[in-house]
Amino acid sequence: MNPMQVKIEEAKSKGKVGLIPFLPAGFPNREQFWKELEQLDKAGASVIEIGMPFSDPVADGPVVEKASLKCLEDGINLTWIFDGLKERKGQFNAALLLMGYLNPVYQYGLDKFGADCKAAGVSGLIIADMPLEESDFVKEAIEPHGVALVPLIGLNTSKERMKLYSDGASGFCYFVSVLGTTGQRESLPAKIKEKLKEAKEVFDIPIALGFGIKHPDQLAEFEGLMDAAVFGSALISHIEAGNSSTQFMEPWQ
Amino acid sequence: MKKGYFGDFGGQFIPELLMPPLIELEQAMETILPTEEFQTRFTHMLKENVGRPSAITYCPNLSKDLGLDLWLKREDLNHSGAHKINNTLGQGLLAKMMGKDVLLAETGAGMHGVATTVAAAMLDMKAVIYMGATDVVRQAPNVGRMRLMGAEIVAVESGTKTLKDAINEALRRWLSDQETTHYCFGTAAGPHPFPTLVREFQQIISKEARQQFMDRNEGNLPDVVVACVGGGSNAIGMFHNFVPDESVKIVGVEAAGTGEPGCYNSAPLDRGTDGVLHGMMTKLLQTEEGQILPSHSIAPGLDYPGVGPEHAELQACGRVDYTTINDGQAINAFKLLSRREGIIPALESSHAVAYAIENREQLQGKSVLVCLSGRGDKDLGILDEIL
């Protein structure tokens, strides 16, 4: 079983929702980033999602985009991410996931990327601009290294497409809660419940709800329909305001 | 060949949430486009509203100056001033028949924004136009036209504030508004089916030009066909029906920016590498780490770090030669065509005209047919200080 699934199932066995915080690599700066990861890990993150900054992130909202572009300006790249993770391999309780866009990964070299994920203790990958139809060549390169390509589905994904995504999927399934980009929202669409039910019927791996999540209170109505929550923009804004990751995680525990 | 690909290029590299509207569009392309109703209405609009067929014009004075026969396919004479209207009316009508009521578009030079706004007005739809903040300033006349015709203009402040950023923001808007909105993509690029759909609407340029040239030249084809290439929609339209004609040399002209070593340019076919952006595998201006580089051209419509995937394949298979023209050479062509023939070309099209001027020695005695993709009134503000 992929380590991401193991960690989410662990939280579930304790009656908790798996926590998946997202931070762009190198945010808020090179040194502090690693300290934030340590805090998130100690505060009970099941999976830590590390953003791979890209110059043209079409699926990201303004908070994530701004943070990622700042990291790019600071020279963050895949080599820096892998070097840092390799140094700290074995130090995190949480499973590690990389999230980004295809082009930087493609230029890095898919086989090298898969091998470096394994060497750095990364067990999952999300590519925001790669649907099912284009995913085979990436899966073939990374899965032999034990790295899962996490399916990203949403409110407009038909049950038929969910079934195609579920075939051979491991780790967890990322359910996007809105038709739009990442970012905090005051309310979530009513249709989520119905689609989460469909996803639960289709996937035999955990379902994580993401996009627009800023507080655990939002999750009460989805009890039993999802297993983990992903939060990025709210965490980034919290850190930008001078607060710590530890403080952010408190209400979730 | 894999669906949606031209050789190794193309595809649908886009968030899953955009796949349903792309699948819906592909189905509409396959079912609505071939119908008699669509074809009759589209052909009628092209004749009645666009003014097709557009002329081809022989340029006697420049031909004499250069020692070659220079012909222009006059897309600048289309209603709204560029080839863009062929595509927006096609996509607009398709969207209307799909039940959408908003046309969303990105624009660089503003010509695609204007053409989308015209299509929306004609079809009783709403137009929402995303434009880089830099382009909003340098293409002010087109912004005024769009506002007058009822478009909502969104100035994009992110990134380089040019076309690529306008595309990013328009894609984000489409994510949210896909049920009511059709993304009227402006060039033969982006995720499948846009490259094929846009080429289908633009190939009328070469269909007409090929026949018109033969009618005027005793059944002979031109020796050389030339078009400028940004995203590549006028070029793919101009090239398509000449591709099977082996005797015809086909040339695509990219923008080399200022032409100085190390400057930003807009020539991914000439100077780029394979990569993924805006839904497609294509040639890109990018760093070794896969970050997209800023592009530059004095012609806003060419100012894009990527290119349509069919062009990447036409280059890879060797059927089309791609070359570059810099800002200064384009301005020279802009002035020469204006003074010698009384035709003010768009700065984009000036790059294609410049190819004939800069290569006149190799082209002596040959017939050269250039796609004049748009008119240059919109560019007078840019050139005020230069002219």
UniProtKB/TrEMBL annotation, chain A:
Keyword Amino-acid biosynthesis set for record: yes
Reactions listed under catalytic activity: (1S,2R)-1-C-(indol-3-yl)glycerol 3-phosphate + L-serine = D-glyceraldehyde 3-phosphate + L-tryptophan + H2O
Keyword Amino-acid biosynthesis (UniProt): yes
Catalytic residues identified in the record: 49, 60
Gene Ontology molecular function terms on file: tryptophan synthase activity
Short name of one Pfam family: Trp_syntA
EC number: 4.2.1.20
GO cellular component, one term: cytosol
Keywords, ordered alphabetically: Amino-acid biosynthesis, Aromatic amino acid biosynthesis, Lyase, Tryptophan biosynthesis
Known pathway: Amino-acid biosynthesis; L-tryptophan biosynthesis; L-tryptophan from chorismate: step 5/5
Homology family: Belongs to the TrpA family.
NCBIfam families on file: trpA (TIGR00262)
Subunit structure comment from the entry: Tetramer of two alpha and two beta chains.
HAMAP family listed in its UniProt record: Trp_synth_alpha
Primary role: The alpha subunit is responsible for the aldol cleavage of indoleglycerol phosphate to indole and glyceraldehyde 3-phosphate.
Protein name: Tryptophan synthase alpha chain
Organism this protein belongs to: Pseudodesulfovibrio cashew
Gene field: trpA
From TrEMBL, chain B:
Catalytic activity field: (1S,2R)-1-C-(indol-3-yl)glycerol 3-phosphate + L-serine = D-glyceraldehyde 3-phosphate + L-tryptophan + H2O
Domain of life: Bacteria
Enzyme's top EC category: lyase
CDD domains, per the entry: Trp-synth_B
Pathway(s) served: Amino-acid biosynthesis; L-tryptophan biosynthesis; L-tryptophan from chorismate: step 5/5
Sites bearing N6-(pyridoxal phosphate)lysine, chain numbering: 84
Domain Tryptophan synthase beta chain-like PALP, residue spans: 52-374
Family annotation (SUPFAM superfamilies): Tryptophan synthase beta subunit-like PLP-dependent enzymes (SSF53686)
GO molecular function terms attached to this record: tryptophan synthase activity
Cofactors that this protein relies on: pyridoxal 5'-phosphate
Keyword Ion transport carried by entry: no
Family named by the database record: Belongs to the TrpB family.
Function: The beta subunit is responsible for the synthesis of L-tryptophan from indole and L-serine.
Protein name: Tryptophan synthase beta chain
Native source species: Pseudodesulfovibrio cashew
Gene name tied to this protein: trpB
